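Build the 3D complex.
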Amino acid sequence: MNDALKHSTDLNVQLRPWDSFMALYQREMARFMKVIFQTVFTPLINSVLYLMIFGVSLGKSITLDHPVSYLAFLIPGLMMMGVLNNAFQNSSSSIISGKFSGDLEDLKVVPLTSTMILWAMSIAGLTRGLMVGLVTLFVGEAFSYVVDGQLIAIAQPLWLLLFLVIGGLMFSMLGVVVAFFARTMDQLSAVSSFVLVPLIYLGGVFFSMNGLHPFWRTVSRFNPVLYLINGVRYGLLGIADVNIWTASVVSVVFLGVFYILGLRALKVGDYQRW
Amino acid sequence: MTSQNLAPIKIDALVKDYGSLRAVDNVSFEMKPGEIFGLLGPNGAGKTTLISTIMTLEEPTSGSVQVFGHDVTKEPQITKTLTGFVPQELIHHGYFDVEEIMNFHSGYFGLRKNKERIDWLLQKLSLYEHRKKKVKALSGGMKRRLLIAKALVHDPKVLLLDEPTAGGDIELREQLWTFVEELKSQGLSILLTTHYIEEAEQLCARVGILQKGKLRRVGPTRELVKELTKREIGIRLKQEPTSDPTHPMFLRRVGSELIFETPSTMGAGDLLDQLNLDLKQVADLNIREGSLEDALRRVLGDKVATGGAV
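Done.
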């Protein structure tokens, strides 16, 4: 037998945290890349429909306070919506499918810490989200060229990237939290339908906060997604309904909160098979 | 330091409660390096809970669990690296094929380039030709073998096998036990739970018997069997007696054979002396030793009968 295959009785343990982390990240990536049409290209269809219906058809009758067309106004909102939805779905569906198949327990019996698991799942969710966001941007650019006769030049690339990354990480971590604490599939669906979808749709994807009744404008300020969407809008178009520094501080604070909740979920959450 | 100097598993006054249910009740024992240790007991005895606590799937209510001197709650990354775990339930891994699963699992232990060992394990466990198949397409026996391959991918120093042959056919069991013996011969320590008591008797140098969370007995398998079981000696005389003997060890008559139940330490010659029989009068002698299953029945039966603690 090859010496490398013989059982070694040496007890010196060499931990390789980076390799452990990368293995889980690669697994999470491989999982959604196996069904790339479902995970990346299906959201593309949604974006095309939104741009056609709202951006092209209805957009002509909508006027904004901002010096951009409604079609252009819509593109960053759709980008962020794609990032948030897909980041959340990636981590939550990975955990839920692991609960069904029984392989979630694998993560508990290998030398991966909660921090490593959270970051690996979050960065994989972010990666998928960014892919969807990028595809949405390309489609949006094509629509802008055809309808408005010009391509959109990215106004603030670093701000754009910052808010996309924060949003993607935040919602991946939220997916971890919800999936670990969910006891049934219904509970996961309920959070998605009754909390996340309203937060995203009311976060200013389709409308400017300036057009709202003062009461609803105040209520909107408690929605963290509002700051993420406006941050991306500022990054892409240079316009926003909120101050960009306020948006970045609020977003970072929420990211911190979701990070702590994510770690807590991994420590006390349920790894057992459903 | 090598795995031949320290106790692979040392459990000290371990208690695990689920609400008001005490699943593991003040259990203490330690494995010896390089041995196969069997954990036996009926369903619900606490075997899986105990193994889950070693693997940090469950947190102890009190007491401690050490793997080669490292506490599982204080140094979980080290204890997990030293341990290989084969769970009782099969896993499906919906998206991936066998080879991908092995690569990811190896990667979790920091071994992202481990092709040689993965191929060797897949060949050893007759999975190599199925390596490109999705796990969900494998038979139950293949899935079981994959669990074992995964548990060994990082060359652990102690292997925990929780009912590894449950539902498996004879071929799987024979193949697995041959492989386990091979690993043991190389110095791997193995903790095993199984419902196949005959297999435990053949494989395990020592066993512990759990019942309702309590460790009722622990010790070398042969000694426990000797201590807890009786020997049956069947004597067939050349001239068949007209009545049954009155000796206190006489158990029953089966045809022309007189069966006596004696302590395991008592020889057939001693019995013949006590019966004032000469070997020339004996047509046939039949000695049946007690088994681990008998010993297990004795321990669990006594417990049921007396309700007392050990």
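The interface with chain B takes residues 2, 4-17, 19-20, 22-24, 26-27, 30-31, 34-35, 97, 100-103, 105-113, 271, 273 of chain A (CB under 8 Å).
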